[in-house]
Structure formats: C-alpha cells, structure tokens
Amino acid sequence: MAIxxxxxxxxxxIVVWLRKVGSREPGLxxxxxxxxxxxxxxxxxxxxxxxxxxxxxxxxxxxxxxxxGPGTVIVLTDAAAVKELMDKRSGSTADRPPMHVADVVAxxxxxxxxxxxxxxxxxxxxxxxxxTPQACTKxxxxxxxxxxxxxxxxxxxxxxxxxxxRRYANSVILSVLYGKRAPRxxxxxxxxxxxxxREWHLVLxxxxxxxxxxIPILKYVPERWAKWKQDCAKTRQMQRTxxxxxxxxxxxxxxxxxxxxxxxxxxxxxxxxxxxNREMMGYLGGVLIEGGSDTTSFYLQSLILALVAYxxxxxxxxEEIDRVVGGHRMPTLDDLExxxxxxxxxxxxxRFRPVAPLHIPHRALNDEECIYCIxxxxxxxxxxxxxxxxxxxxxxKPGADGSDLRxxxxxxxxxxxCPGIHLAQNSININTMNFVWxxxxxxxxxxxxxxxxxxxxxxxxxxxxxxxxxxxxxTPRSAEKAxxxxxxxxxxxxxxxxxxxxxxxxxxxxxxxxxxxx
Length: 518
What we know:
The chain is mainly alpha-helical. The protein has one domain (78-514): CATH 1.10.630.10. 52% of the residues lie in helices and 4% in strands. The strands form 2 sheets. It has a two-stranded antiparallel sheet. It has a two-stranded antiparallel sheet with strand order 3-4. Helix 5 packs parallel to helix 11, helix 10 (188-204) packs antiparallel against helix 11 (227-255) and helix 11 crosses helix 14 (278-309). Residues 1-23 form the signal peptide. It is found in: Membrane. Heme binds at residue 418.
C-alpha cells in the first residue's frame, strides 16, 4: 500500500508533464493553436512551407512561434526583425539547430548546415578570404566564356535549355574552385555532382528521416533496420568520392606546376595559414560546389519561366537592351549600369521566386527579445512586376517602409551570408542580359498550335528550390545575333583550354566537334 502513493504521484506528474509537452510556454510569441504532445506538428506544412508561413504571419505578426513537439521554432517574416536579430545580433543568432543526418553525411563540416564552432569559423574565414569581390573579378574570363557556351548550347539545342543551364552553373564553379571545367552536362564530374546532390536532397527533405533530433535514442537503431542510415552512408560515399577526388587532382596539378589560378590552389598553398586540414578542405570545396551549382541554375531557370509567363516584361527588357547595346555586339557587365529596367528585373526575380524561400534555420546561442508587427510591403506580390523597383530601390508599395530590406537578402543573413555572393551575382547579371539580348522566350504549343500554359508553382521541394523541368520555345532574335553567339563561343576556346584538364575521350570529342563553325 505504501508504494502506491509515490507510484500514483509519479503517474500524475507524468500525465501533467505530457499535457504540457507541445504547449506554448509563457513569454513566447503568439502562434497557431497547439495540441498536447504534438504542438503544431499536425498543422506543419509538408511541402512549400513558405506559403503557409506567410499566411500565418498575416494572422500572428512578423514574429510568431510554432511548437514542434517539445521544441520551439520562431518564424521571422518582418524585414526589420530579420535585420535586428540576424544582422545586428548575428553573434547570438549564427548557430544552426542540430541536424544529425547532415553531421552523419559530412562529419559536421558542411559549412552551410554545421553548428557554430571553431571548425565552422575556420571554414567561413577561409571562404570569405578567397571569395572577395576582387578575387571574383579575376575569374570573370571563364564566367564570360562559359556564358558564351550557354548561349551557343541553347542556340543549337533550345529544347535542352534546362540542362544547359545546370551544366553552365556547375562548370563555372568547378573551374573557379578546381581549375577544371565540364564541357558537357554528361561530363563525369557534373554527372557525379547531380547524382550525389539528388541523394543529398532526399536525405535532407523533411519527413525523409525519423525525428532523430527530437528523439535522440533513434540514433542507436541498427543500420539494417534504419534505411535512413543506409541512405546517409550512400550519400557520404558519393560526396567524398567527388569532393576529395577533385581536391587530389588539384593538388597533383599544383605539384606539377600546372597552376591556373583557381581558388583551391590558393587554399592548398595557404593550408597552414588558414588552419585547414584535408577533411575541411574537401568539404569546403563541396559546399561551394553545391551552392554555386544549385542556386545559380535555379535562379536562371526561374528567370526563363518568368520571361515566358510575362511577355510584357520581356518586351520592355528587350527594348532597353536594344537601346543600350544594339544588335552588333553582346552585352557586357559595364552595360548594366545603363539598364535600370533589367536591374529591376533581376531584383524582382529574386523576390518573385527566391531560390531559398525559407533560408536555412538559425539557432540562437542566447535568449533574445524582439517585437515587430508584420508589414505588407508589396502590391500584387504574386506577380512579376519589375516596375516596382523603378518606383523605389526596395520595390515596396507607396507608404511602406522598406528601409530594412537589402538587395543581398536572398543570399542569407548575418554571419551565415553566402560567401559566394559576388561570384553568383556576376553569373546572374551576365546571363540575364545575354538571355534578353539573344532570344525570344515564348510558350510551347500543342498539336493544334495552342499555347501550353505553364504551372508557375511546379517547383522542387527542399531548402533550395527551382522550377521542375518545363517546355518553352526559344528562338534567336535575329540571324546576326546567332552569328555573334557562334563567333563569341569559338573565340572563347583559348580561355577554355586553360581549364580542360583530365577530360574523358567523350569530352574531348565533344570539344573538337563543337568548335567547328557551322
């Protein structure tokens, strides 16, 4: 009998505790109603969560909270709150939440996902040291050459524009990082990257693995009963084979005196100064390949989707570039200063279809307090309207305060801002001008000649997102421009040759065949 009292009290305590799990603690920002144990898990969107988060923001304000079982997520949708907490207080908000599967795959060395640690600080410092605006300017020749091939590829096979863009983005970052380009989408390194990246996205996709970070005991389930462990092991092997293979090739070239000025040569030469070991160098290169390949290609694919869907915006951009550049030469980066509408289009495409609509979650190292209300900043936000950025530099509607917005917000915030921002922006600027100057983008048609409507919301799931493959018609705007594209591509051969190391026989044959004037 005596033992029943403590047992009863213990059971009562457990019941009371369980009823509190999932409840919103006092002092947290408001948010959707919760259920015991689950919190808001039952209402948490399984795909494209940024749409639901925006809906909740209109109800609960610019800072609101979600309960994920016993855990808490604070959602920021107000620009002033983002600036205050993520930029001004970045020393406190630069951490990442635990992500066990990412640590299993990359050993805690994926700079984008890793926790705030000494290793992360070393990786970040090294990346920002080598990826300065001045250093990126030195790599403009290969970016321009690759952009000329992108135009040439689209001219020759417009139906494959989607993969042409992926090849371009991957080849640029491979050249800049490792001094080795990929002349075809089927090139070994490009194929290996996109295969590994597909597995990586599947591992990271919400719901793809059990809630390991909420229920840590799941880490100890034997691999034969945990498919997620098998998937992580497969992804890790694929990434390491590619990343460390490229690192070793670069080291071998450096030892043979065959430098071409790529970033990884500098990291190898300054390895001791930077405090980098082999593991850190391999994964630093890997995360930069991931960012440079995916985000740039997503942006350019979304741009083409927008040009097809918004012909008036395309026409206005073409009128401006024709006025500034004309039809007898290709545009240059210097021309962009004289093209306010195309600059506005670049900003609007970032806003309209951001490649990372949620960014990657941050984790606060200290308790922070901040109160803001949601402000509707844009008129007709669901449509692409470059003109909004001609009215004011932030594109906001009359009367809305957009002073806390900044143009590089799509590239991250605080100490987690993307180190490759300058390289990426150069690619975006070059190719936006090239596309508008060179081609007409129109809807594809069915067998009766009727335009096929595009699904503007058919996007990949995941942290980074771009449109799924779609069809459209791409035609050169004039025969003269087609000739200029071919001439510029052929003249880029000398630039390409500095980065054509270790090509497969198929790549070599493609290079020879493609550099014969049609």
